[in-house]
């Protein structure tokens, strides 16, 4: 009898909710429609947190700015992924306190130590910030990105290395949907129209540069999956997807993304032909010396280039080094110069994490301004992960960030040299190294780590490298112990 009343109560409440929600939908407000999604996410967090992590991997490329769903909001975040990240992070903290969930071995790893210093300095920089609320939000976003995509990712990948392929496959699948959507939008206007590429990935990406950065990062990952696939249909599909992602990257018309993938391929070339680090360092030093020796002539030649970005791929490539008339390139110089002056004025703590776009206007010089500059300085960021950090949180923050990826790369290069590493894990590690290099180089020209679409593969790739490093270290320790037992 009681169950009938319960069913009746649920039915009445459901009908009431549908009626109220229909009214709000008619009024062009979908705020109540978010409640079932939030309830579903809440249940998912409490009953299947691991599945939620993999759900995030798929949804990250497909997330949308909340302001696109509910216009006029005074705040914004990526929906539905950022609420999922917050819920999942709270769950991890509770489990760490209650079930000894903490990964103690990470406390000895230089990558994790650098991450703690990086987050710690960002938190310290909130105090003297020009806009403490903005800076606190900036810190929290970095905190839950690292907490989920790196820390939880490391735990799950360490538990079972097969989880690595699942994470990468789901992320690539989500990004593949965006790529299909983007190319379909472009084809309606013209695939060779670079103007149509700029907003083709909306509403999932803010512009073609962040979309290109994500695609460039994914190309080595899908390539590794294709290499590791067994013969037959899986391998054929893997290579088809690889070619498709390369095509999507070309059609993104993101020059920085093209360049970043070329640099990553060069790194693969060094690995493939076992070129020693010493040779690379010497060659880099010679190139740097040549640059400074002929810098006046190089600058003169650069200033003679007046080729602007266009739908012609050759001209678009040539426009990369046009610092005479290309508005995009010139505006980057304007932003970089403003960031450097901001850093020079406050070199230790900066102006506050996340505040660049709100405070850089007075630092613009009239002779660096372009047709896309704003007098209010309220459009965009520093167009450099490194200069942005320097201006917002001082020199220690950028040194910490560089330390993170330097130690991660060193761990990866050391790992692929291990005789015991499997071919599959070696390919995945090389792909993660290449992916990281695409963004590390891209970060000189843009900064996208505040986006879940870039943060997921960036921090996730580091988690993969460290998890595989732990896997083979543990495997080596077990083998050594077994040998001692046999000898005794």
Account of the protein in words:
- The chain is mainly alpha-helical and 488 residues long.
- It has helices spanning 2-26, 34-47, 49-59, 66-69, 81-99, 110-126, 132-159, 162-189, 194-198, 208-228, 233-251, 255-272, 277-293, 295-304, 313-318, 327-345, 356-359, 385-416, 423-442, 452-487; strands at residues 64-65, 78-79.
- The longest helix has 36 residues, at 452-487.
- It is globular, with a radius of gyration of 24 Å.
Shape: globular
Measure the end-to-end span.
71 Å
Major sheet characteristics: 2 strands, antiparallel
Low-confidence stretches: 312-322, 478-488
Helicity, in percent? over 70%
Number of helices: 20
* Main structural class: mainly alpha
Mean pLDDT: 82
The SSE string, one letter per element, is HHHEHEHHHHHHHHHHHHHHHH
Total E-strand runs: 2
Radius of gyration: 24 Å
Estimate nothing, just give the exact number of structural domains.
1
